[in-house]
Design brief:
alpha/beta, Rossmann fold, Dihydrodipicolinate Reductase, domain 2, 2 domains, nine-stranded mixed β-sheet, six-stranded parallel β-sheet, 11 helices
Length: 382
C-alpha cells in the first residue's frame, strides 16, 4: 500500500539559526508546507514572509487567531517555550519545539500533559540523537549483536561560549549555558543509547571566564536503571576543538573550518552581539553535508564490542577485528526530525515526545543541583 501523505500547514515561530536549518528539509518534505511565520523582529519576519509568500505575524496569538496553520514549530528563546507551546496546544495545533524543551521540569511536564490531554503531537527537536550515526548505534545496541550496553562516553569541545549570543543564552535561570543548551544534546544521545531511565546524576559544571560569565563546560555522569553508565564532557571555550578527533568533520558533517583563535566578545554591547548573531544565523547550520554529523565523539562500549563514529558512518570493534558501516546521506538530521513529527501527528509512537523531553530537562536540572551540592541526585521518575 502506498503511503498516504499528510498536509501539515506549518507555522514557524522564531526565525533564528534553528529555523533557518529547517527550511531546506521543509521544502523537500512531502508532508509539510510552510503556511506562516512569526517573529517579534519585523525585518527578519518580513524577509521570511516575502521569501515564502506567506503571512508574517509579530506574535503567536495573532497567527493562531487567523487559523492558517494546523501545526507549529517553536524555535523561540527557551523561556518562552512553555507559554507558547501551551497556547498552541490549547488552539488544537500539533507542536514541534526546539530543545531545550523548557526551563523547569514542572514546565516540561505541564507541556507533555497538555499534549496528551488534547490528543495532539508534541515532539522535541532537533537534537543530536536524530543524527543517523547515533540512530544506527541505537539499532545495533537494541539488536543485541554486541551484548548489553555497559558504558557510553560522549565528549564535545567547541567555541560555543565565544560565538555571538542573546543574553538569555548565557543565563542558566533562562535555560542558558552549556548544560541546558548543549548538554541537552548529549543527554539525549546517552538516553537514546542506554535506552533505560536515568536513576542518578552526578556533575561538575564550570564558569571560568569572568569577562563572559556562563556555564561554559561540564562533566556529567548518568547512571541508568539497567546499570549502564553514560558520561558527557563538554567544553565550549574554543581552545581545543573535538573535530580534531573526528577526522576534521564538524557538528553538521562538513570539514571543520581552518582553526582560528576564538574572538573575544566580552566588550560587545548586547545590541551588537544580537546583530552578529542574526547575521550568523542565516548560514550557521548548513544542509547537504558531505559527511555524517559529529556532535563531538561518542564511544559505545558493549559486552562484546565498541562502536564509534567515522566520518561517513560507524566503526565497530570486536574480537574479530574492525568493521566500518557506511551510512546514507540522503536525509539530514532535520529531515529525520520532520519524519518523526509526521509520525507523531499520525498518532504513531515516537521517541522524542513530550515525556522524553521532560526527562532530558530533569537531567539538566539535576546536573546543576549536583554541581552546587557536591552530591549525586537521585531521579526516581526520569
Amino acid at each position: 500500500m502506498s503511503r498516504r501523505y499528510l498536509m501539515v500547514l506549518l507555522g514557524i515561530v522564531g526565525l533564528g539559526a534553528a529555523a533557518h536549518a529547517f527550511l531546506e528539509p521543509l521544502k523537500r518534505h512531502p508532508d509539510f508546507v510552510i503556511a506562516a511565520v512569526c517573529d517579534s523582529n519585523a525585518v527578519v519576519r518580513d524577509e521570511f514572509a516575502a521569501t515564502f509568500g506567506v503571512p508574517g505575524y509579530g506574535c503567536l496569538s495573532d497567527m493562531l487567531a487567523d487559523g492558517v496553520c494546523n501545526a507549529v514549530y517553536i524555535g523561540t528563546p527557551t523561556d518562552l517555550h512553555h507559554a507558547q507551546v501551551l497556547e498552541a496546544l490549547c488552539a488544537g495545533l500539533h507542536v514541534l519545539v526546539e530543545k531545550p524543551m523548557a526551563i523547569t521540569v514542572e514546565e516540561s511536564r505541564d507541556m507533555s500533559r497538555k499534549a496528551k490531554e488534547n490528543g495532539l503531537a508534541l515532539v522535541v527537536g532537533h537534537s543530536h540523537s536524530h543524527d543517523l550515526p547515533i540512530r544506527k548505534m541505537r539499532e545495533i545496541i537494541l539488536s543485541g549483536r554486541l551484548g548489553a550496553v555497559r558504558m557510553v562516553n560522549t565528549m564535545c569541545y567547541t567555541d560555543w561560549v565565544r560565538r555571538p549570543r542573546r543574553a538569555d543564552e548565557l543565563k542558566p535561570e533562562l535555560g542558558g549555558g552549556i548544560t541546558y543548551r548543549q548538554g541537552a544534546h548529549q543527554f539525549d544521545i546517552l538516553c537514546s543509547l542506554c535506552h533505560e531511565p536515568v536513576v542518578e546524576v552526578s556533575a561538575n559544571v564550570f564558569d571560568w571566564d569572568s569577562e563572559r560569565s556562563t556555564i561554559g563546560a561540564h562533566v556529567v555522569r548518568l547512571l541508568f536503571k539497567n546499570g549502564a553508565v553514560g558520561t558527557a564532557i563538554y567544553n565550549g571555550y574554543g581552545n581545543f576543538l573535538s573535530s580534531e578527533l573526528t577526522g576534521e568533520v564538524g557538528e553538521w558533517g562538513f570539514v571543520a573550518a581552518k582553526r582560528e583563535k576564538p574572538s573575544p566578545l566580552s566588550g560587545a554591547s548586547e545590541e551588537e552581539e544580537l546583530r552578529k548573531k542574526q547575521i550568523r544565523s542565516k548560514n550557521a547550520i548548513a544542509n547537504d553535508a558531505p559527511h555524517q554529523p559529529h556532535f563531538g565523539l561518542t564511544i559505545v562500549s558493549c559486552e562484546r564490542g565498541d562502536i564509534r563514529q567515522s566520518p561517513d558512518g560507524l566503526l565497530i570493534y570486536t574480537d574479530g577485528g574492525q568493521e566500518e558501516v557506511l551510512l546514507s546521506r540522503d536525509k539530514s538530521p532535520r529531515d529525520l526530525v520532520l519524519d518523526e513529527f509526521s509520525q507523531a501527528i499520525r498518532q504513531e509512537a515516537v521517541l522524542h515526545d513530550g515525556q522524553w523531553g521532560a526527562a532530558i530537562i530533569e537531567i539538566c536540572s539535576a546536573a546543576l543541583t549536583s554541581s552546587q551540592t557536591g552530591k549525586p541526585v537521585r531521579i526516581p521518575h526520569c
